Amino acid sequence: MVDPVPADAGTARQRLRAWLLGGLSDMAKQHPGPHAQATDQQHGQRWWKVMCLTGLDYFSTLGYQPGIAALAAGLLSPVATVVLVLVTLFGALPVYRRVARESPHGEGSIAMLERLLSFWKGKLFVLALLGFAATDFLITITLSAADATAHLVENPHLRGALGGHQVLITLLLVAALGAVFLKGFSEAIGVAVVLVGVYLALNVVVVAVGLWHVVTAPSLITDWTHALTLEHGNPVAMIGVALVVFPKLALGLSGFETGVAVMPHIEGDPDDTEQRPTGRIRGARKLLTTAAVIMSCFLIATSFITTLLIPADDFQPGGPANGRALAYLAHHYLAHHYLGGAFGSVYDLSTIAILWFAGASAMAGLLNLMPRYLPRYGMAPHWARAVRPMVLVLTAIAFLVTWLFDANVDKQGGAYATGVLVLITSAAIAVTIAARAARQRGWTVGFAVIAAVFLYTTAINIAERPDGVKIGACFIAGIVLVSLASRLARAFELRVTEVRLDEVAERFVRDTAHRTIRFIANEPAGRDLAEYRDKVHQIRADNDIPVEDDLVFVEVTVLDPSDFEAELHVRGEVLHDRYRVLTLEHSSIPNALAAILLHVRDTTGELPHIYFEWTEGSPFAQFLRFFLFGQGEVAPVTREVLREAEPDRGRRPRVHVG
């Protein structure tokens, strides 16, 4: 005898399901789905507070960017960093200020490019960009956690106890970040403000003391310039080398895509609407500009003092300054001369905290981006709209990436830079096309030049570090395969968000409500009198329908078969003064027919009948036609859609095939 399942076990499962699928109210507004109400633009945070959220990603790169610049450019690091700053202020910043205006709901350049391509090629292109976005944001989570671990392990007071446990510590940090999102994200911006404020203040101290030491020891500058002249000859050669090594410094551009992704958190003006969120756009542009200016100042100053004050060998892999140049400076140089040993530990603690929580802005970006596209394409399950299941999935993937890369910062740098550069390049191309469409010749030329610079940078980065594009390709392949499998599994869903009938169509439905409702599914050809007359005769003969019974034709026009969820528009017309026709517009013929049948049933309270002819050809080939192009063997698929939508057989519209 099998013991019955306790009632409290079922209740516990229901509570767990409700908790998982409930999502988080403050994040759900970013991907509302087809039936949600428009969000209130007055809710949100001031732009400078949201800047701290994106700054978790952007500003935290100070933890490793000076070391990367020193490894790439050596003594030329400050000059190469100036090139990076110029590209930031006069390239990436104008691009993303335009992206914020063109796509104010957090989708970024992907949404702009999506509008340029239709059908399956557009969907596959978006999936490819989502693959690089996933590479960028997920590697942000794992790389930042790994760098936080490096700072923790390299702390002089903890090295003995934590050494050799980098992977385990990184996994714990990633798990803790996931736990924050499972618990709730509404307080994260407040935490971000504190972390960013403290971290920047400590960096101001490090930079100020470092610059003071350089100024009071003029031999440092003299020795540096002398060494530069010996190594590179003249300023022109220095600039040329700086341009060549610039692609290796691309991680310093990492915050722009995140800055756009968190736009939904910015409060708008009282009169903002979803169509025209003017206040949100203005706030986002202030956010991007302020963050870029602050970061540019820090990048130049930190690359200068670290190059002059830290021996070149210490930057090499395994060296004490590798991946943590400023922390090393705070501990082993400035602390001994000016600040005391406690300052180094405080700086380490602040760096570890911001690097760990830097994954929060990336996680927020993913939770905003993925549910906007994949469920709408039918390429993710329904639960992908909820935040908590997505957090669990993304955390599991971050675990896998951490394990595969041994929590090593250098190993993940190529993939991170590739994701960043591909997204920035796509943004530059998108705004170039937008400016051209708006007939803004000056902006078109300017954005085209910027796009060319980023194309060059991306190509060089891929050539030098092909592992990055390989990892991005793995993400793309995973997303495409999972998406197509989900689309296949959800093929027989109703897939209609709303049914809209015009006045004539509504009158047809009202007129048929007083007798048996009979529809003829028709694939229109010439729409001449003979076509409809012959069809009526054939359907009456095949199904023994009395002459006195009314018949209404239903014809579906497939718009974009790659769309999944869409409204169903129904138009009524009378052809040849005798035949009533309902014309439907949707992405799939069977799903549209099932939706109109259920709508008629619910409107009239009567079960409608629909009549089909069998389609000639291979059933498998016909199913592929349905899957890819929204048509094929319509009759059995319509019946299957109805069966899934209405489990009660007694309330299911009747399907007849002859």
Question: What's a concise summary of this model?
Answer:
By secondary structure, the protein is an alpha/beta fold.
Mean of residue pLDDT values: 80
- Cα(first) to Cα(last) distance is 49 Å
Q: How are strands sequenced across the largest beta sheet?
A: 1-4-5-3-2-6-7
Estimate percent helicity: 55-70%
What's the oligomerization state? single chain
- Backbone CA Rg: 30 Å
Describe this structure in words.
- The protein is α/β, with parallel strands linked by helices.
- It is built from 25 helices and 7 strands.
- It has helices at residues 7-22, 25-28, 47-58, 65-73, 77-102, 109-114, 119-154, 159-162, 166-183, 188-216, 219-232, 235-245, 255-261, 278-309, 325-339, 341-373, 387-404, 409-437, 441-464, 466-489, 503-512, 529-543, 589-604, 619-629, 634-645; strands spanning 496-501, 518-521, 552-558, 566-575, 579-586, 609-612, 654-657.
- Strands 1-4-5-3-2-6-7 form a 7-stranded mixed beta sheet, with helices on both faces.
- Helix 22 links the parallel strand 2 and strand 3.
- The two termini are 49 Å apart.
- Mean pLDDT is 80; it is low at 23-42.
